[in-house]
Amino acid sequence: MKIEKYKIFDQVCTFLGEDLDSEPCKQLKEQLQSCKDCEVFVDKIKRTVAIYKTADGCDEIPDDVCKKLFKKLNLDDLMDAKENDKK
Amino acid sequence: MDEKKVVAQAQQGDRNAFAILVNEYKDRIYHLGLRLTGKEQDAEDILQETFIAMLQNINKFKGNSAFYTWLYRIAVNNGLKKLKSKANSYTHVSLHDPNVEQTHSEHLNVWPEFDFKDISNKKFRKELDEALLELPEKYRTVFILRDLHGTSTSETARILDISESNTKVRLMRARNFLKEKLEDIVKLEGLL
């Protein structure tokens, strides 16, 4: 149970973008120890971000958009050549 | 790809190097525009305008930041210009802040385990997109850059020309707003 709590603390600190030993994180850890609502809040924030990330992987640049871009840049003769130069 | 080398070649007018850079970043820039505006045509415009600006200004890049930070900054500025110029025609873009600054008491109802297949459901996906577009640009841009594109706090701050603490605050507000929206969607879909 304690390990779970500490995992959550670390996640909250990550969400805030703070260093784990920073003062805001220490205060947050103290609050979370007695706050069930905070745990639920953290879980929902984490899952919101995860859902958006998952949903987000579906978009690819359409072929016609890509062709128009290279044409506009006068690089249409290099569309195939660049593929070979990529990692 | 050795990006520094490719950028240096592009700065000397090497067309092939330009093409490599375009290919490396085109998907991300298109995606950024699409998430920012919610419209494919606008995303395409932002894509073209960004790379035209890259071609014209690449010699101004001095290597003080990562190349993509410099390029993202151009793309975000183009995106924000686009949003401003079309402010009246967007139905979802608010000119004032929605409830992003309110704190809500958390309901103790825990969300169910989602089947991630639900996310590819078109209706659910549309609702997610709409929720994102309801966020004012200043929060939306931070969420897109930090959570969807994975830029760091300092890179995001640099791209948007805001402080790091401001970046963190905006991100938390964006996440909280989207969480509230998702709560509504979950209820609406009968998942709770």
Give a nutshell description of this structure.
Chain A is mostly helical. Chain A has five helices and no strands.
What does this 3D model show about the protein?
Chain A has 87 residues and is mainly α. Chain A contains 5 helices and no strands. In chain A, helix 1 packs across helix 2 and helix 1 packs across helix 3. Chain B folds into 2 domains: 86 residues, Orthogonal Bundle (Rna Polymerase Sigma Factor, Chain: A), CATH 1.10.1740; 97 residues, Winged helix-like DNA-binding domain superfamily/Winged helix DNA-binding domain (Arc Repressor Mutant, subunit A), CATH 1.10.10. In chain B, helix 2 packs antiparallel against helix 3 and helix 3 packs across helix 4. Chain B is elongated, with a radius of gyration of 19 Å. At the A-B interface, helix 3, helix 4 and helix 5 of A face helix 2, helix 3, helix 6, helix 7 and helix 9 of B.
Helical fraction of chain A equals over 70%
Assign the CATH class of the largest domain in chain B.
Mainly Alpha
User: Any low-confidence stretches of chain A, pLDDT <50, length ≥5?
Assistant: 83-87
Most extensive contact:
A-B, 42 and 51 residues
Strand content of chain B: under 5%
* Main beta sheet strand tally, sense and closure of chain A: none
Number of distinct helices of chain A: 5
The rough form of chain A would be described as elongated
Strand tally of chain A is 0
